[in-house]
Design a protein that fits this description.
Length: 162
């Protein structure tokens, strides 16, 4: 292993299960509904998946986690998060989140190293908000950060699920 190589984050299954239970309970009492397209997502086996989504609210991680474990329960799920937020909520490290510094070269390099390590696992799913920040869904044109494109040039094989 090279000195600058990175391992995929580890996930504590018990912590993930407990937080998933809490997230479902919390959303049940706070949201009226979650609507998902009736199209069944592709069940790609043997290839890692990157889910690219928008980020209009702080609810997004809870909704994504619920969908991830419900629709893709057999996969390992990961997501980048602002390092400052991760320092406040350290338990997120135990459930697949990894810290980055948005808007910096150091943060971009860390994202690419960690995401590349994650995507070496054919059962991995990486959940990213390519806009990189909370953004109004009505804003046009949609401005995406370049990290996903750089990741695609580094990783030879993954499926992209928008």
């Amino acid at each position: 292993m090279r000195a600058n190589s990175v391992e995929a984050p580890s996930v504590a299954r018990a912590t993930l299960t407990l937080f998933h239970w809490y997230a479902r309970w919390y959303m049940y009492w706070r949201l009226h509904s979650i609507r998902v397209s009736t199209l069944t997502p592709p069940m790609l086996s043997g290839v890692p998946i990157v889910v690219c989504m928008n980020h209009p609210s702080w609810w997004d991680p809870l909704v994504a986690m619920t969908l991830a474990l419900r629709l893709f329960g057999g996969r390992q799920h990961f997501a980048p998060i602002d390092s400052r937020s991760l320092s406040k909520y350290k338990f997120f490290e135990r459930i697949g989140f990894f810290g980055i510094e948005p808007g910096s070269a150091k943060g971009a390099a860390r994202f690419l190293r960690t995401a590349s390590a994650i995507l070496r696992n054919p059962q991995a799913m990486l959940w990213v908000t390519a806009q990189g920040a909370f953004t109004d869904v009505r804003q046009r044109p949609v401005a995406l950060r370049s990290g996903l494109g750089h990741l695609a040039s580094r990783c030879p094989k993954f499926a992209l699920l928008p």
